[in-house]
Amino acid sequence: MTMADPDADVREQIAELLPRLRRFGRALARTREDADDLVQIAIEKALVRTGQWTPGTRLDSWMFRIMQNAWIDEVRSRRRHGETFVPEEEAEHVGVSTTDAQIDALAVRKAVAQLSDEHRAVVALVLVEGLAYQEAAQVLDIPIGTLTSRLARAREKLQDMLEVRQ
Amino acid sequence: MTPTHDDDELRRRVSAAYDEVLHEPVPDRLKRLLEVPAPVVDLAAERARRRAAASKPRWTWAHWGGMAASLAIGVVAGALFMQRAGSDGVVVAGSSLTHALDAQLASDAPASVSVHLSFVDREGRYCRTFTASSTAGLACRDGAHWNIIATATAPASAPGSGAMRQAASSLPKPVLDAVDAKIAGNALDAAQERAARDRGWRR
User: Fold this and answer.
1) How far apart are CA A23 and CA B105, in angstroms?
2) How many CB atoms lie under 10 A from the CB of residue B203?
């Protein structure tokens, strides 16, 4: 006889989400290191409270919410300590074999990185992760009207930055 | 808000800009946090099987002692994701837990496994308490392994930062009872803990 680990199923499901959690983290935190640290913190937080996730509801939204809250904590903590955020290294992305698509991707990521934290969270959830407005509003714990107006402003800012750039 | 052509185009560009992350290899440190363990052998069932298989009773005091310790603890809780049964029926820590018990200090930042109290038991071995996921436990060093002495379900921790620390500071009663039954003298202080760690938990 073996004893099943009650959390094993949730761990497996989170493991399947890892690529998307890393992508969401990249949009939110801007750099690879911060993004992966954020994913790690969120997994650790999630594993001690798997009972708070309701099976049958979206695990991705639950994880995004934990990541978003952890990121807000991190941003506040760094601002308290006067630390600055390191911008993404362009050199990491631009090489001899860089394609037009990669150049565009870099321009878009730089534009997203310049948005406010509030706007970037909305962009990461709706435009990057493809969440519906209602789901994104729940993740951020804001009314849907607030979400749509933030999204509209974020879109305008991105359009402005990306048009100037081209 | 009706999406305009520009909006759709922007969505496509933003989405494409981050898609490459999906194709990057996931760092091991993230995958390790989510490793699903081999099923834990039910000790009571395993012992019953071996008792039945034994042609005659040949229990030594060591056997009885180990068995009594396990039974008193209510057998291994089963929620611990990093352990396996040794060939002699002793439950030892798996690789992730072993690594944490070997290397981590109580003062380290919360991780998937957190280590708290360290002490010397009455047999002269180092023992440490830990929490991993929803399980708390006590492990004692035995040669190259950490034997699992007790485990119990850890109390649910409050949300928010520092949740791991809170979980760490409130060990369940079965684990605390096992500590009380084992401990000789006082728990190690931070300097003694570090020194013992640096010596590889050998005495």
Assistant:
1) 32
2) 9
| Residues making up chain A, counted from first to last | 166
Test A5 with B13 for CB contact under 8 angstroms: no
Q: Does A120 touch chain B (CB under 8 A)?
A: no
* Chain A nearest-CA residue for B131: A48
In the predicted structure, residue A116 carries a pLDDT above the cut 90: yes
CA angle B97, B100, B102 (to 5 degrees): 105
Is the confidence metric ipTM above 0.90 for this complex?
Answer: no
Question: What is the CB-side half-sphere exposure of residue B95 using CA atoms within 13 A?
Answer: 6
**Phi, psi angle pair for B108, to nearest 5°:** -65, 155
Q: DSSP states of A94-125 as a string?
A: --TT--HHHHHHHHHHHHHHTS-HHHHHHIII
Q: Which residue of A has its CA nearest to B163?
A: A45
Q: Does residue B114 contact residue B131 with C-beta atoms inside 8 Å?
A: yes
Computed on alpha carbons and rounded to an integer, the radius of gyration of chain A in Å comes to 17
Is residue B163 packed enough to be buried (19+ CB in 10 Å), middle (13-18) or exposed (0-12)? middle
Which of B30, B97, B153, B164 has the highest number of chain A CBs within 10 A, making it the mutation to test binding with A? B30
Contact residues on chain B for A158, CB-CB shorter than 8 A: 10, 14
Average pLDDT over residues A15-28: 96
Confirm whether pTM is higher than 0.80. Answer: no
Q: Output phi, psi for A15, to 5 deg.
A: -60, -40
What's the DSSP call for residue A125? Answer: I
Place of tokens 């989405």: B15
Q: Which residues of A touch B159 (CB under 8 A)?
A: 45, 49, 52
Spatial separation of the C-alpha atoms in residues A68 and A139, rounded to whole Å: 8
Mean pLDDT of B46-61: 50
